[in-house]
């Protein structure tokens, strides 16, 4: 089969996407597919899997990169994508995960992996996701949204419009109060990889945290902090894979502990009671279908000390690097990496 892998892109998660895309490309090439890697940040300049091996490492922080207008359109209109039987979307964050690229692929008449336009857009917008999750009885931490009038940084994405319930940035302390006080988690509405996220312990820390999040998104979520454990459930083709528990060394599963070897410990299947594992699996499937996801996704949780799961978000293009959680969960279910990638591709062709 001819397969184009979209990787890189212009989001804050570009570097991780490059690693995901290369790993996926390699696995597909091993299965004798005809694979080309295409970076929408660059335009129509496909490269082979071997050429891509001279890989950069993931740094400690995301590098800034600006969208060159039209490059993504040129990449998707280019020969590599046009000739492909299927497109593997390995773009994390930004336009590659929020439905924009998916929309281009729809217009180009291409089959592609993972979720479609609406589910992608919904999952990338944490507030919109939480409204849907709540409606589907999937527990999620209580929250308020603080909205800035305009983008502080003109390059930051505007995202969804404000709602009447949104508060002004100078009402952040009031929001924290209404949530029952500190600690609270402050995060941008539409970022991934813990970029722009702060756990705020007191009122003094609130202003800078809101301002930091505001650099990434016009809308900032202020969420009740859920103490306890960090777990995630991968959904593959309508089934939940074994639960992964993550123990970040520094306590917070941040950018560094996500992508630096040895900064987090992982247990899969998680050492938890069957009831809890079942509840997590059931809730993950519920979140997956409520959001209208397709193919595969990863549902992130905090589990409180009393054993109550709270869904933080659904990731429609979860990491697929060697250290990533979905491949780890698949391995625990007896599905190797190349098999996993192959299944995701086959689901796109159905
Ligand atoms: N309400 C919360 N309570 C406790 N920890 C949280 C909360 N929200 C986020 N976190 C921590 O921050 C990490 C990233 O948050 P998440 O909402 O999943 O955003 P991202 O899209 O950046 O992954 C989580 O994996 C968790 O460690
Ligand atoms: Mg997450």
**Count of the domains:** 3
Indicate the low-confidence ranges by residue numbers.
none
Helix and strand composition category? alpha+beta
Distinct helical segment count: 13
The fraction of residues assigned to DSSP E strands is: 15-25%
Overall residue-averaged pLDDT value: 91
Cα separation of the termini = 15 Å
CATH class of the largest domain: Alpha Beta
Distinct small molecules bound, one entry per kind: adenosine-5'-diphosphate, magnesium ion
| CATH homologous superfamily placement of the largest domain | ATP-grasp fold, B domain
Helix content: 25-40%
Q: How would you sum up the global shape? A: globular
Structure summary, number of beta strands: 13
Task: Please explain how this structure is put together.
With 350 residues, the protein is of the alpha+beta class. It has 13 helices and 13 strands. Strands 8, 9, 10, 11, 12 and 13 form a 6-stranded antiparallel beta sheet that branches. Helix 1 links the parallel strand 1 and strand 2. The two termini are 15 Å apart. The model has no long low-confidence stretch (mean pLDDT 91). The site of adenosine-5'-diphosphate has 19 residues, from strand 5, strand 7, strand 12 and strand 13.
Brief descriptors of the model:
3 domains; 6-stranded antiparallel sheet; Dna Ligase, domain 1; binds adenosine-5'-diphosphate; binds magnesium ion; alpha+beta; D-amino Acid Aminotransferase, Chain A, domain 1; Rossmann fold; 350 residues; 4-stranded antiparallel sheet; 13 helices; 35% helix
